[in-house]
Amino acid sequence: MMSEALAQTYERDGFAFPVDVVSASEAQEIRDDLELAESDLADDPEKLMLLRAYPDRLLPSFDRLIRNTRLIDAVTPILGPDLMVWSSGLFIKEADSPKIVSWHQDLNYWGLDSTSEVTAWVALSPSTIESGCMRFVPGSHTRQSVPHNDTFDDNNLLSRGQEIAVEVDDRDGVDAVLQTGQASLHHGHLFHASGPNTTADRRIGSAIRYISTSMKQNSGDRSLVALVSGEDHYRHFTVAGPPRGRLAEEDFDLCRRDAEIKRRVLYEGSDPSKGKRYAGRWGS
């Protein structure tokens, strides 16, 4: 899709897809790097959780992904040329997994001061109806923020198991089917969800949260971001450079400090002791 047409579709529906980001072979290389890192950290649950929440801060392959020119070109007509990445957490549904994501809106939980955000969800494996692709309700982003309930359901991938407290007709949902290497874009107030993975392969996606540099945390915290396009004239965040290496200890330390901020923001108004997932699980 041309950038202008994509931006028009996004403004009308609150989402747009597909965006061709990398080739299938390039996506496979990124996935291989991730899965090697998962294997390297298999005996260290804390670092493994940080890897899945902050792949772009710990793996150079994911740092290159968030800076991909095709993603930047797709997001720029929507947010402008000055762009940061606030998060790029992984959403992984294992093969034959019952895990789901309930209908929800993202921006209710991120503690940001405006809606100048776009999530680019990049498929590193096929995201199909059978594997539990995302579903979007067209135009629902115009309803702004609606009430949510916390369920803390074990089968819900979201940190609080949050779900929209108003009625959502599942028949209104549009399946965002993506081939490996493609992405979808969606608004932070869009109603979206995803079903279980009934296939024999993992469903792996990186949810890259692009924000305008003008945004800030309502709490005043300077959470960790990457500046990927343009300039930061506001200095509301802590801008991290590229990873110092592959799974570098200094980068883990940065991620630990940021995870404390995001966990506090995410669980505001809730009991954090019930939270059983890492700070990266903020979407589908």
CATH class placement:
Mainly Beta
How much is the average pLDDT?
91
Per the CATH scheme, the topology name is: Jelly Rolls
Q: What's the number of structural domains?
A: 1
Number of helices: 7
Task: Quickly give the structural class.
Answer: alpha+beta
Low-pLDDT regions: 276-284
Number of strands: 14
Q: Could you tell me the strand content as a percent range?
A: 15-25%
Under the CATH scheme, the architecture is Sandwich
Largest sheet: 8 strands, mixed
* CA-CA gap between termini: 23 Å
Compute the CA-based radius of gyration.
17 Å
Backbone shape: globular
- Helical content (DSSP H or I, runs of 4+): 25-40%
Question: CATH homologous superfamily - what is it?
Answer: q2cbj1_9rhob like domain
Element string (H = helix, E = strand): HEHHHHHEEEEEEEEEEEEEH
